[in-house]
Amino acid sequence: MEQMKMDELKSEVLEILQQDCRYPLEKLSVMTGKPLETVAQAIDEMEEDGVILRYRPIVNWDKLHVNRVEAMIEVRVTPQRDMGFDAIAGRIYRFDEVKSVFLMSGSYDLLVLVEASTLKELALFVSEKLSTLDTVTGTATSFVLKRYKQDGVIFEGGQSDGRLVVSP
Amino acid sequence: MSERFISPVVKAVPPSGIRRFFDIAGTMKGAISLGVGEPDFVTPYHIRSAAIDSLLDGQTQYTANRGLLSLRKEIAGYQSIRFQTDYDPEKEIMVTVGASEGIDLALRMCVRPGDEVLVPDPGYVSYAPCVTLAGGVAVPLRTDMGHGFRLDADMLEKAITDKTRALIFPYPNNPTGVVMRRADLEKIIPVIMRHDLLVISDEIYGELTYEGARHVSIASFPGMKERTVLLNGFSKAFAMTGWRLGYACGPAPLIEQMNKIHQYAIMCAPRQSQVAAEEALRKGRENDYQDIETMRRSYDRRRRLMVDAFTQMGLDCAVPSGAFYCFPSVRSTGLDSETFCTRLLREHKVVCVPGTAFGDSGEGFIRCCYATSVEQMTEAFSRIRAFLDTL
Hints:
Chain A is of the alpha+beta class. In chain A, about 35% of the residues lie in helices and about 20% in strands.
């Protein structure tokens, strides 16, 4: 299969998998109209190339009543010679508490998403582990109060099917 | 007692064949419907938002009878970009309350008492009743699976009498999903011309075609514009069914007369819907009709899934290349369409529409809509399979 067609197939497959990554290969093959082997190859390649990193559920933790606090922390840092922000980002993202790290444009440098089981634990992480890093010059922590939508999925009050059961 | 006030013409029009299924399904819990005739997307948010803005802005007045000129200009541009037609927004386009109103207007504009209007069968439910209500006689053009439910020149020629006034031309077709290709059109156009017929071309599914079968508008052929009323709208392509907005394009004198009926019966289409439609087209022009393409691709995947499922069940199913319906044959089950659908609903809680709702040629077929979520469809297929096993 030529490269352009393969790339088209890959983005088609990704579009479907982002809706539901549990569809079996057979279904993906029918839906894309491509042979099973070709679809399998597309997925294999994307897994190998690190295009697809992991298949994970989107979870509404609030419904499970588990203790879980999340915060978004704006971090200002001094970039290092030759390394830019990569070195300090690496120092930060290796902490288990840290779920995501983004380099940002604007009034701060790194956006760090942190998760812990209690407020205190999270606060301690910021004061003892994050703020004390050499190049970190300042942090501003905001706690997540409610999650409305994540990765394109609305958590509650999403659209219901308002259509008539039968229409011409 | 009040019955005496009802005109016999109206009374004689049969109620829609889907009504009964609607009533049964309405009382049933857990039924899955493949019986819908509209997108499962909601109108894209930017379109809804434009309508809200116009309300907040106090745009609550009538518009011109023919619709906002700015919208008609967008329609002219859209038609030209997508379907290579050429209409003057001032004189050759009018905005209607859905393409449905356009059907009624076009028929009332052209039909003289007793005129015959050719209606492809199976076809959309409202054509024949609208012909009757306009004082004409609907003459079915029976298409069959053997010919892929296509209209051909021979069939057309045979149905034409000296009373034939117009041909309703509903492609891509609901319920069969048939798309008429350029070559198909080239064969039937000479017949239309020779008999001097008016074509009422219902192109509401024009954007929803698959497998490279782009919709070709019959109005885009040389000499056809002057004898065609083209109907289109926003319901299917932009997921805007509830907004009730469509339009008619045609030669100025025809549109002028249609507008006269529209003016006395409707006044104008709702302004908010017009504003929303204008946003849909303007944004589409800017982003290469991304909204449509996203939805079309989603239907396409589910189309394949449905065709594959019916084929695996052993139900003969022509591959539909337009709209969002499959029209599989249930003849192998020995049941007629009506019985098949009634039993499927009562015994396994899946709603399909019997082909006979779309005319006599629909006997032996059922219409299934794949604008339905993959999960729902998958569940519906296993229920249909279970039903087939009991036969």
